[in-house]
Specification:
Number of strands: 6
Strand content: 25-35%
Distance between the termini: 24 Å
Strand order of the largest sheet: 1-6-2-3-4-5
Helix content: 10-25%
Shape: globular
Largest sheet: 6 strands, antiparallel
Number of helices: 3
Radius of gyration: 12 Å
């Protein structure tokens, strides 16, 4: 969550809140087919009840995120783990052009 906060502040001059769940509340939900670079991808990695992880969509099914085991990394949304834990996708109002 701090990774997305830092990237969005640095790259887009957008202020995000601290947690993945708070960042989710700052976005407008979007559909899979509308996903574009800079959109946020939200996951429930710690069970079904709370949003606990967030990444930034790049393109071609890839997203960048901070992994507790691998540091900042690029992953593929087609990976079974991410398919299983994917919760929602959102766009920040400042990026809705």
């Amino acid at each position: 969550s701090y990774f997305t906060l830092d990237v969005m502040q640095t790259a887009y001059n957008i202020n995000l809140k601290r947690t993945a769940a708070e960042q989710y509340e700052q976005t407008t939900r979007i559909n899979w087919e509308d996903l574009k670079e800079g959109d946020l991808i939200f996951f429930k990695t710690e069970g079904p009840y709370r949003i606990s992880h967030v990444g930034i969509y790049l393109s071609n099914n890839k997203f960048v995120h901070a992994s507790s085991t691998n540091g900042v990394t690029i992953s593929d949304l087609a990976e079974p783990y991410y398919q299983k834990t994917l919760y929602s996708m959102g766009r920040l109002p400042a990026l809705s052009k």
